[in-house]
Design goal:
Two copies of one chain form a homodimer. With about 425 residues, chain A is an alpha+beta fold. The first copy, chain A, is built from twelve helices and 18 strands.
Chain lengths: ~425, ~425
């Protein structure tokens, strides 16, 4: 019977058999100490018998072992207990020295990221590295629970499409049995179509963007949370649902993963009851006044403004989450809704968290004829097969609706306080990296 | 304030305002009855006032409405109550007659499937159709819960790859910034690599296969559940985990969605405590003896054998789930483990349910040098960048492990008793269909 490492302490005075990887080996006062790692953590083992020590000759970190020994209380050992008089069995020998050291903290400095990703599968044998992906799984679990409790149906829509969802050049193309197909940049049109059936839907799925740049915030394959909800009174109802979800999920994560976040040096979480909303025009004004750099002519927020407004919101409203709303019409996509009270702006909010945009949260134009007009104004062809079914759903009745395109990788990055979205991704993809 | 349709019955004697789609309209005894649909179901509304009836002139099914009226108990109405003296507001008019009728059962006959998928977004406004996708969401929720409780970490691996995962021709290729990339046919190599970090992982994600055939069981984009677990004693441990998960999840679904499954005419669920295991050789023998058709020279199971063995298992073991095990070595993939007790077979089981293979559950070869040998024997190049990182993980120690490639669409199909995997998919993809 195998005992998992975090359970060893419950066998003090008895014998336990652990199975795992050789994680560390050292000599101390004539004794050999090894650490063995399994999915729950580490256990320390003292090898007294020379024959047992001999079995490890030439065996490198990563060697797969079964170890049986007497469990002894030892406050200085991980878990508070260790194995003595251990007998070893080498299950899978490793005779090559691994190219990276996994029992020490891995460097995440910008210059070392390439090494981090090159040896990702080995680096994740480090317990600190694993925490990032356990927190990521926890975030997704909490998001699913929140949305399901709020009557959203989780759907899966196709990634192989007949046409580009959003227009633009950043789309991967492929041959689909002799026909040109594109890889979905988002489930935008499908989730809107599904409002007509389920009212409230969400999807968590990869999205593909042929981003020509290699930045700390972009990848060519990202994990998106897409939310869409119908019968909303106004834009605020959508902003509040997505804002409340984020606040709720972050609070839970900071509670459920308190120890992990602390050991990863995550900043303290500061959130308010409601995510504050500031218009883009107001942000330009505030920023210009505070910094002396005039951004009032900018259409979008500059990256520095995104950081600045998050700091401002934290100080002024006690919230690291803040919405920038009412984007200028020049930045709009064809499916956005123009603000009837100020037709130079669009009912579109960006959710910012710790200096980074993590979600785009607009209201949609839900009237068929107006939408066709907006498509034509954007130079798009409403008769293209990629849009035909979307317009079909509009023609047969969609209520006022809105939703979010939410970057999961960015949420994980900022929750933990990482510096690059790729650090929050198991195997990141960008213009320079297609492997591992 | 909006009242959802299933909540209307709690307002008897009071006024309620519902918002939804015009779902049905009929005249009866000089009165106009309409059904309004929202995300919870239908409510019946009686229009007495001529001005209100007039507002619906020219309005087709799908018109988005807000309706306020007095709630009256009415046992014959959906939900047991209806609205009287209703006042209407047309929120979004629909003036074109929809191309399909959504208040009647939609035909799923093979000849009508093309129409079903062509108008999928509208067809899903039918409440019966929606049930399929609510059950699908429920299955995925229960699977996630089961695996998380069993210490599996949910991961997301890339779909844009440097090389074909499994070899073979059925792979989509695309240009990735001047380099050739392939779309993942499965997360096979990544999940095995992640055993080295987390021991137990799973992923639920789309997989892409350039299937040249159009059958009832294949699509070019499928939703796969991939499971992988390390430190397993033997193949049985993997088979039992996947079998027990399936039994547990199906029992829960048949409990949680009893009403929906009944109204969809799903068959009664018959499962045993454990999923029985029968070798492929035994199945050939049993089938040959029972039917007179000699299959003993076949490598794989024939589709008819898959159906037959499920019937056999149901009668003999009281289980609609059954494993076919020990596949002949001719059918093996390079990462499978050859059976040491019978080197003509592979430690690989297929999970069959109601006549269809829903999962492939093999043990893996986890020794680096043996794996390289098997790759070469399969005519593959171990130095290809698509395999380099996989072999790196092997070289630095992976314990004995196995897992499952599990077809979610097929599981949904067979759980409900549909006849085509595409009926279980929101927007199916095959050689003939890339839209909607």
């Amino acid at each position: 019977m195998r005992t998992l490492t975090d359970d060893v302490k419950n066998y003090v005075g008895k014998t336990a058999r652990v199975e795992g990887w050789l994680h560390k080996k050292r000599l101390l006062g004539g004794l050999t100490f090894i650490n063995v790692r399994d999915r729950r953590g580490l256990v320390q083992i003292v090898l007294q018998d020379k024959d047992e020590v001999e079995k490890l000759r030439g065996m490198q970190i990563g060697t797969v072992l079964a170890v049986e020994g007497k469990v002894v209380e030892e406050p200085r050992a991980p878990g508070g207990a260790e194995l003595h008089d251990a007998k070893l069995e080498v299950l899978v020998p490793v005779t090559d020295e691994p190219p990276i050291e996994i029992d020490k903290p891995l460097s995440h400095k910008p210059d070392n990221l390439d090494t981090l990703f090159e040896y990702r599968a080995l680096g994740l044998r480090n317990l600190q590295e694993q925490k990032v992906f356990k927190i990521r799984a926890g975030l997704l679990k909490n998001i699913r629970e929140y949305l399901t409790e709020h009557d959203f149906v989780e759907i899966q829509t196709p990634k192989l499409l007949a046409g580009a969802t959003e227009g633009g050049a950043e789309v991967f193309k492929l041959d689909y049995f002799g026909q040109e197909a594109t890889l979905a940049q988002s489930p935008q049109l499908y989730k809107q179509m599904m409002v007509g059936a389920f009212e409230r839907v969400f999807e968590i799925a990869p999205a593909f963007r042929a981003e020509l740049s290699a930045t700390t915030r972009h990848m060519s394959e990202v994990m998106m949370l897409d939310i869409e909800m119908g019968f909303v009174k106004d834009h605020d109802e959508v902003l509040d649902l997505v804002g409340n979800m984020t606040t709720d999920v972050l609070k839970k994560i900071y509670d459920q993963y308190a120890a992990e976040l602390k050991s990863l040096n995550a900043p303290e979480l500061i959130v308010a009851d409601k995510v504050p909303k500031i218009t883009v025009a107001e942000i330009h004004e505030l920023y210009t006044k505070a910094t002396g750099t005039d951004t009032t002519a900018e259409k979008d927020l500059t990256p520095d403004e995104e950081k600045w407004i998050c700091d401002y919101s934290k100080k002024k409203f006690g919230s690291e989450l803040v919405y920038a709303t009412n984007f200028p019409i020049e930045a709009m996509k064809f499916y956005h809704k123009i603000n009837p009270d100020d037709p130079k702006t669009v009912l579109w909010g960006d959710l910012l968290f710790r200096g980074l945009e993590i979600a785009t949260v607009p209201l949609r134009e839900n009237h068929h004829d107006k939408l066709v007009e907006q498509m034509k104004a954007a130079g798009m062809n409403p008769d293209h097969p990629g849009y035909k079914y979307f317009l079909q759903a509009m023609r047969y009745g969609l209520p006022q609706h809105g939703g979010a395109g939410y970057g999961i990788d960015r949420l994980v990055e900022k929750t933990i306080g990482l510096n690059n979205v790729k650090e929050a991704t198991l195997f990141p993809r960008d213009i320079n990296r297609l492997a591992p």
